[in-house]
Fold this protein.
Amino acid sequence: MDTFVVEGLEGKKRLSGEIQIGGMKNAVLPLMAAAFVVEGETKLSNVPDIADVHSMARLLEGLGAFVSRSGDKASIRTSEANGTVLEPKLAKSLRASVLLLGSVLARNGKVTFAHPGGCVLGSRPIDVFIDGFQKLGATVHEDDAETYTLTAPNGLSGGEIFFRVMSVTGTEALMIAATRAKGIVTLKNCAMEPEVVAVAEFLKSCGARIEGAGTPTIVIHPSHLEPPQESFRVIPDRIEAASFLILGALAAESLTLTHTEPADFEAVIETLRGMGASIAVSGTSVTVSAPETLLPASVRTHEYPGFPTDAQAPMCVLLTQAEGESSILETVFDGRLNYTSELVRMGADIHVWNPHRAVIKGKTPLKARDIDGPDIRAGLAFILAATIAEGTSRIGNAHLIDRGYAGIEHKLRGVGVQIERHTA
Ligand code: EPU
């Protein structure tokens, strides 16, 4: 179990330099799942070297696919992939395993999987997936309390699905499956995240006929799929960019993020500007400087293009440094404020009124602590908090941070953060 050891800057704004943003975790995972629905070899580029990509590769291999990596390139060969069972331990450890349900069911007529499981973000049900596949003609069998089998031996049919909640992976999994349905599939109340659009673009490059990705209604027509000759480039990670932008607003003289798509995280850029941070956007680069005084803000997480829930925990660290009263309203998940108790241990003044609402009073200096991050984004938030704190912090559960941030210690050291990885 690795730990990050971070020497705090005691509030000094001294970080400077450039960080290159990598390919997006939440885009590459559905793209790998989409590759499974297409028979042949799919090539991807700008693939981040993160633990979740390795887990998804192992899941695909368990289904009979061959996955190879070289630098930021990946090749996924699926011609002989006839598997129908998602390896239970892996599937349970990776919520994104649900992305494979549509691919495997639509391609091989059957999929057996373990419920992706309890997660620190609160209850994460799968009803959207089950209802959706049933509407396309699949039969659901509950094998035991935590294992399900979906079957559609004669293929999926066309149909109309209205998503009860806007679900990112739900939209992606159903869109992927629909490319092999026998009739037209209309998806309503779809998630509109850039990663949904990226998956649609990939499927279109394979010959799929998809209209409306990026809007609430997506229509998928039956078509023949073949992988494109050229490799498909994974979009830049808007959450990695947002996380480091927040770091810049906390502690940078001048920090430039390169290889980004600034339009994908405008909600974060505008919120930070409202708090007084100076942010300059130029093409695919964004430069941020921390202001003398940070103003408070009310942050409400929301589906895209609103403020992303995945940037909520890092944002909370920034709000502890704002002069006055700020608030967070978490509208997407019901267990995503639990990490705040650790920030309170560091000296923050945060009152959690209910699982969705926190009030933060600032500015409070933070003191170094030894903390275990509960999930990817809260772990990252603790690194940010440790960076501005007084003293040396140890952030445990580094493997969770590695699930979503490639080589974080190298990227952060490059701009002046004193961070080391210790392997026990
Ligand atoms: N929901 C249901 N039923 C379902 C599915 C979802 O009620 O069957 C609810 C969820 O409980 C939640 C809401 O719908 O309250 C939205 O969840 P969504 O399904 O959109 O989340 P997800 O697809 O499981 C993806 C990202 C998350 C990110 C959310 C929200 C991937 C692999 N994961 O999860 O990323 O927080 O969308 O944007 O794309 C992360 O990267 O750290 C992360 C957690």
User: Anything to note?
Assistant: The chain is about 30% helix and 25% strand. Residues 238-251 form the longest helix (14 residues). The pocket of EPU is lined by residues 25-26, 29, 95-96, 124-129, 165, 167-170, 191, 309-310, 332-333, 376-377, 404 (CB under 6 Å).
